Amino acid sequence: MEFILTSDFQTIATEIASLVFPKTQFQVLSKEIGVGNVAITFKNPRDFSDNFRIRFYPKLKTLTVSGYSQQGIVHFNFYAENNNNCEWRNGGGSKIDRPSCVGERFEFLAKKFYPFLQEFFLGEVFDNFFISREFENAATEVATQAFPGFDFSLSYSKQRNKELYLSFRGARNIKLKTLKIPTKVPLTPESIYFNIDFRSHAKCLAIDTVWEGEQYLLFYNSIGNLSWSTLLLENINSPAKFGKEFENIAVTIYPILQEFFPG
What we know:
Blueprint: H1 7-20, E1 27-33, E2 37-43, E3 52-57, E4 62-69, E5 72-79, E6 87-90, E7 95-96, H2 103-121, H3 133-146, E8 150-158, E9 163-172, H4 174-179, E10 191-199, E11 204-211, E12 214-221, E13 226-230, E14 234-236, H5 243-260
Antiparallel strand pairs: 1-2, 2-3, 3-4, 4-5, 5-6, 6-7, 8-9, 9-10, 10-11, 11-12, 12-13, 13-14
């Protein structure tokens, strides 16, 4: 099964690869192998000899880096719980000595990628959980419609009970600022930060944000109820500043979250 990797994942993965191949622009592809395992392929369109593949087995706490050497295809098996048993094998599966040409590179990649992959996937079955580019675009578009003077980026994490936590970071659009194009929202802050905690089973979400030193929490559920609170007060009126904008985000993004993550 093919997966669409998030932009955050691709950025960090290519940064790690660039430590070994500093002048190579890789295309990053991935697919599921077996149940809950993933293969990530790094392709250099200009020189296939730079290509390498990482296979990650979270339950076994094992990672394999495969690629080309002067001996042909070679594989480096990295075992997180017993580094002394890490081994090299050739394309036929036989044990070999560490290749002089790629040995140091592949071992470095294994040690760098393992904690990174472990952090992203938490050692559990993936359950087809890769936020697609389609969802990223839809979610950031909702934020941009509410705050048209800002460009938003999105990061996420998934809890084991299928809760989804999204973090939005918006930076003021430089072009709008420079050209002084009027927008519906006053561009007083330089950035906007807010988080969405989506709970598919409970059929609700919460948005938390901070304005002028005050933390606000907006609750929204599937039957359309909206309620605001702060750290000290519950059931307050909608904040005069940006209250409607965040309410629009809640109402608009909820059905999108339901569609992509039905739970």
